[in-house]
Design brief:
By secondary structure, this protein is an alpha/beta fold. The chain has one domain: Rossmann fold, CATH 3.40.50. Strands 1, 2, 3, 4, 5, 6, 7, 8 and 9 form a nine-stranded mixed sheet that branches. Strand 5, helix 8 and strand 6 form a beta-alpha-beta unit. The radius of gyration is 17 Å and the shape is globular. It starts with a strand and ends with a strand.
Length: 269
Amino acid sequence: MTILGQPARDIDTSKAHPARLYDYYLGGKDNYEVDREAAQKVLAINPNMPTVARTNRAFMHRSTRWLATEAGVRQFLDIGTGIPTQPNLHQVAQDVARDAHIVYVDNDPIVLCHAEALMTSTKEGRTAYLHADVTDPQSIVGDKGLAAFLDFRRPVAISLNALLHFVPDDKGPYEIVQSLVDSLAPGSYLVLSHCTGDFDAQTWKALVGVYAEQGIRAQVRSREEVLRFFDGLELLGTGVQVAHRWMPDQPTSLTDTEVSLYAGVAMKR
């Protein structure tokens, strides 16, 4: 098992954490009472949060499969990994391409506790876990150990799924994404999903307030604001869409309001 980056801090069970809230929405068991109490407050305002989480997972599966199959991507950098939920990104990618290399990145110590599940690679491929924070992108792409797993001279797909709504404007989210993209070779990809208040502004304003009460800063963004993350890149597939509409495998009865999550994939030329 290969762990890159600085050792994680002890798990703080005194306050809710977004990765553990997400785990709760997905029906997971890797959360604490403080997370469950916060999640119940969220669900009282928006009972669709499990739908948002599941739709995000489904987008991750489709986009990863598409990149491995149609685009021939063999290197993936998944930032903001969260607590493992089967199938994980490496399992989807290596199901298509057994030689795929995947590096997971997160700054939550509880994710490190589950890193072994994230790194059950095929014999032909490789997986690793990097403990780092997206708000310091150079701690990710500049990590000395990363080069043993990913070759940035060749195309890499960077995934930022359900992450950037936890990076408010004063943390420089657009500059962070640009820094990550600048590190990529031509032919690389950016995969991104992001919660929005476009379809129910009052509900999402209230949700941001509940997260703030837990010490979790969040900021939902409009479609135009999400599109800015892809500036200078070539959007693929169906462009930036509400996540269930991005290259769907089958028809769905979900509504845009229920999902309230934009998603897109773009290539660096």
